[in-house]
Automatic annotation (TrEMBL):
<protein>
    <submittedName>
        <fullName>Molybdopterin-dependent oxidoreductase</fullName>
    </submittedName>
</protein>
<feature type="region of interest" description="Disordered">
    <location>
        <begin position="25"/>
        <end position="44"/>
    </location>
</feature>
<dbReference type="InterPro" id="IPR036374">
    <property type="entry name" value="OxRdtase_Mopterin-bd_sf"/>
</dbReference>
Length: 198
């Protein structure tokens, strides 16, 4: 009887340790998962020197266009410039990441009209447009969004914030009517690329 009790206690104690250890494993898994999620989402802070390396003095409009272009801030200033007031850059769940009182910008549509997308006829409308930054961050638009949808009136290339040059790069791509404006807010803008769906 005594030995039986002893074995029983041992068994219970053993199963308890097993339970705890597997629970602990799970907890550890969750915490590493969370850590890597945060790591992926957050941007590491760059030194002033590294940030300068990403700055472009012009953006290149290329791909399926009749007139490939290199546009500087000065060339944008010669186009139809609009002012965007109280701009909010938002992330997931509407978290405000950045707020700007006033920005000067031109419409992405005007830039694309200048470069003229190579369309064979009026039904040739299946293109996508990529805004690419020098750190290879990218945002994508479709032809229909820009030329046959209110988004066309909301997709901008920003070159001035509160009367000063923009801080991250010289030009920023932005889509003002997106639910969260963070994803299609492309700083260090380097090129606008037009591709046809074959
Ligand atoms: N070039 C470039 N633009 C970018 C990013 C980036 O990593 N590189 N991050 C985007 C993300 S995820 C958000 S939410 C907004 C605002 O980012 P911030 O919080 O770093 O200002 O910028 C966007 N634009
Ligand atoms: Mo983000």
């Amino acid at each position: 009887m005594k030995t039986q009790n002893y074995i029983l206690i041992l068994l219970i104690a053993f199963s308890c340790t097993m339970c705890n250890s597997s629970k602990k494993d799970k907890e550890e898994n969750i915490s590493t998962e969370q850590a890597s999620k945060t790591e992926k989402h957050e941007h590491k802070t760059l030194t002033a020197e590294d940030s300068l390396k990403l700055v472009n003095h012009q953006i290149e409009i290329k791909g399926d266009v009749e007139f490939p272009l290199q546009l500087t801030i000065d060339s944008l200033k010669k186009m139809k410039v609009v002012t965007i007031e109280n701009l909010k850059i938002t992330g997931k769940g509407g978290v405000i990441k950045r707020e700007v009182k006033a920005c000067k910008a031109v419409l992405l549509r005007d830039v694309l009209d200048k470069a003229k997308i190579k369309q064979t006829d009026h039904k040739d409308r299946n293109f996508y447009i990529v805004e690419r930054a020098s750190d290879d961050y990218k945002a994508t638009f479709s032809w229909a969004e820009i030329f046959n949808n209110p988004t066309g009136d909301n997709a901008y290339i920003i070159f001035e914030e509160n009367g000063k040059p923009v801080k991250n790069g010289e030009m920023i791509g932005l889509c003002k009517n997106d639910i969260a404006t963070g994803p299609r807010h492309v700083y260090w803008l380097k090129s606008i690329e037009v591709y046809k769906i074959e």
